[in-house]
Amino acid sequence: MLQTASIAPAPIPFLIGGEPVRGEAVFQSVNPATGQVNYEVSVASSADVDRCVAVAQEAARAPKWRNMKPHERARILYAIAEGMMARADVLAQIQMRENGKVMAECRAQVASASSTFRYYAAVCETLGAEVTPSRGDYLSMTLHQPYGVVAAITPWNSPLTMEAQKVAPALAAGNAVIVKPSEVTPTAALEVADIALAAGLPPGILNVLTGTGRDTGLPLVRHPGVRMISFTGGTETGRTIGRIAAERLVPVALELGGKSPNILFADADLEAAVAGVVTGIFEGSGQSCIAGSRLFVQRAVLDEVVGRLKARTQALRVGQPDVAGMSMGPLSSFGHRERVEGFVADARAAGGEILAGGARPEDPALDAGAFYMPTLVAGLTSAARVCREEIFGPVLCILPFDDEDDLVAQANDTAYGLACGIWTADYKRALRVARAIDAGTVWVNTYKQLSISTPFGGFKDSGIGREKGIGGMRLYQQAKSIYLGLDATA
Ligand code: NDP
Fold first, then answer.
1. Could you tell me the distance, in angstroms and rounded to a whole number, from the CA of residue 234 to the centre of ligand 1?
2. Are residues 306 and 400 in the same domain?
3. Residue 210's closest CA among 103, 62, 98, 332?
4. 293 and 237, same structural domain?
5. Of the residues 182, 214, 456, which should be mutated to test ligand 1's pocket, given the most ligand atoms within 8 Å of the CB?
6. pLDDT digits (tens, 9 = 90+) for 372-405
7. What is the pTM of this model?
8. What CATH number corresponds to the domain at position 402?
9. Which residues are known to be catalytic?
10. Paired sense of beta strands 37-43 and 25-30, if any
């Protein structure tokens, strides 16, 4: 077994070719619920990136991996899925102590990540090549081949699921992968890589480089040996990576930020809708790309909805993430809490009314952690900064609307287009509005349902490409067309 976070050595090494490697520099992983240092973690330098890419290239070309049949790759992916469930407690603990998510959510995310490996095992051994209609004396077919080395760069909010979403299809597709996790959540990927080695994945096929975006991420995406880049994170970082990929002419998938509208029509089941709105924004302390952070309420029910919303928001329990029954843990870092506080200060200065929260918790037992109360902001328009920019925290902006046209114009008045919720009893209207909103995912009378079998991604500044689903494996393959001549006289 590697020296992963489950046995807490110092400093934790990164992983190249199945071997632990300690970098010259280190950074600290801090538990946001307590302010305590979890451990020191090695920074992979650009020289380490060079070495890692060379090792991954060699592993990708080696007959053992290149010639492995899809059903044999699938067997390894199934074993990884099982290995993750066997180490579910360890994985959930790692995520909880690094980003502060409540334990119930961490456990659910282990199960989800494990099932992602299972899903792509099944896709890998069933999805075929195509024989295409021929227009002459030949047999034409299209095969789908791996790129070689894929870089997977991930954010801190849900490392287990985000990493599985990239690693499982990229491996199923036959690539070697280098994961660069966020410096906030560096070690879940190491634990999964250890599980993968134990499951029979050849060394060098899954590597993990810990470090910062500047020291490790940037040299990785610039490296000529990296033939495809899959990134999830903020829109500005995505733009930087997109520019590099364009310059290098390598394909890139970008899953970026959001400012998703959750729309409540007057005819909705208000109790169910308000419960969905509260979960949609405050689960994970609002640190979710698909958080429904702009609530549009039809004016006729505005007062009633605000009353119900305040009651539900104030009933949420904010506390230590390992205590059962907590709705929200801390924010993922102290720096991120300051950023969220800056947005709320900005909302106040702009004349916004803080209907709930807007402060750190009063409980002195939570003083040492990066906690922040669930916050409702009203009285502003879509022009306000707090209603336009992604906060990525527990802050919901409430905006009234009058009719469908007004609603669609307001909801689409954003640079983003990741997700949308619609609450109404009228399914014709639901479908009309769902078609009109710029978003990669629309939920009707539900929110934040996700399925590995359903494509996911963003419109506009929320990204390029779609992960998940059967096409999620094709993202990591390039098509090759072959013509076999059948003309007996040639
Ligand atoms: P960042 O964009 O800051 O970072 C994402 C990853 O990129 C991290 O691993 C980071 O490293 C790395 N990175 C930073 N700069 C560079 C660079 N120049 N070159 C290469 N790699 C780099 O996002 P956050 O981690 O702060 O995550 C929050 C963001 O992620 C939010 O905007 C959120 O909406 C988005 N997100 C989108 C999702 C989606 O599916 N659409 C899902 C989840 C989150 P380091 O951490 O070390 O700086």
1. 5
2. yes
3. 98
4. no
5. 182
6. 999 999 999 999 999 999 999 999 999 999 999 9
7. 0.96
8. 3.40.309.10
9. 166, 255, 289, 467
10. antiparallel
